Amino acid sequence: MENLELTILNYLREKSFYEKISPYLDESMLSEEGRTIFSVLKEVLPNSTQEKIKCKDILLAIAADPIVTDKVKNEYRKLLKRVRNSRVDSKEVLLSICREFLEKHLWKNYLERFTPFLTKRGGLPLAQIEEAMETTRKIRDSFDENKGYDYFKNPNRAAIKDSPNSVESPLKGIFLYPGEIGLWGGGPKKGKTWALINTGYSCLIQGKKVVHFTLEISADWVALRYDARILKKPIRDLQLGDSLKAIKKIKLFGGSLIIQDRPQLSLGEIRDYVRSNKVDVVIVDYPDLMTTPRKFKERRHELLSIFQGLRNIAKEFKIPIWAASQLTAKSLSKQIASIEDLEESKIGKAGTSSLFLTINQTPEEKEDGIARIFVAACNRYISGKPLRRVECDFDTMFLKELAPVSKKEKED
Predict the structure, then answer these.
(1) 101-149, pLDDT tens digit by residue?
(2) Cβ atoms within 10 A of the Cβ of 378, count?
(3) How many domains is the chain built from?
(4) At 270, which CATH number?
(5) Which end of the chain has fewer CB atoms within 10 angstroms, the N or the C?
(6) Are 210 and 200 contacting, i.e. CB atoms less than 8 angstroms apart?
(7) Are both 198 and 112 inside the same structural domain?
(8) Residue 54 CB: number of other CB atoms within 10 A?
(9) Domain that holds residue 191
(10) Overall pTM > 0.85
(11) Are strands 370-378 and 387-393 parallel, antiparallel or unpaired?
């Protein structure tokens, strides 16, 4: 039984949910076991005074049939346990799962009905196609997908500034909000992973559940970089036991971190992971190496597709996504790198990102342990100056914002 079906059956036990989805749910969409559970719910829920049917009551109804053996009863007990554990915390994600499940099976059934017409003169039956499209529209309307944002019915919109799902970057006052992409830009070997590790660390001490996708560095080495940042200790000096200290420290904040080592990462893998797991923040290091099922003539078009896909995932699941991308070698000789220094699809990358930060450092600054972060693009106003000075130590992965340079210091 697929995960989508388990989730659907779990929420079908709730009366309000059952009333919403059952008109569009055909038994042919379910497995044999799923049809048995659904038939029990159809019999019990309409006349029940309970808002939610317990799995043990479903099992009792199934076991009441005299032809059900102890072996079959035990199999349903295990299955109902899986159904009960298939929970989704986000209502928006749940509704998305429902739409996907219903539309997937709806069109599968219609395509099977359309197939015999492909070999006949006259083509597909327009009436059946219109029927399928109308049913799809009703499903989407039922889940409020097309109703839009009513300006007059949402007077508390200012609360989004304090959204519990927003995350502050390592720079004070610079936030990323649900549905947005934040992009770090750095030259070759110039701190992209350092920036993302500090971003992840910032999210962890805010109590966020973070998944960090890495396409270049192995999961163990990414974890060691987090250890170094948490303990402010050079990676080369980390000893056995230090990782336990780092874990203990982060647990105090309530954050969690999963590192996914995916050298062939695709948008579908990210979407599947976020759908199946409770995630507050996604970090991708780095999208330029991701793959797409469709082949493009030019790499810049492929990258645009990848970044648009990341933005769609951020919006669909209402989570922030942080990523990093390469700057050109020419950026190394510049005081401040900007959008024009992005490699490949610069407009596509910057255009799909809500926030774009570049890492800038001269050889003298590197020797002094200083770097400058430039807010190259942002889709909203950020108070303060767009250029931030930070203490930078790649050995300990440490990043700390420094006070702005005073006028007197500049003169000196």
Answers:
(1) 888 878 877 777 767 666 666 566 677 777 778 887 777 777 665 466 6
(2) 15
(3) 2
(4) 3.40.50.300
(5) C
(6) yes
(7) no
(8) 12
(9) 161-411
(10) no
(11) antiparallel
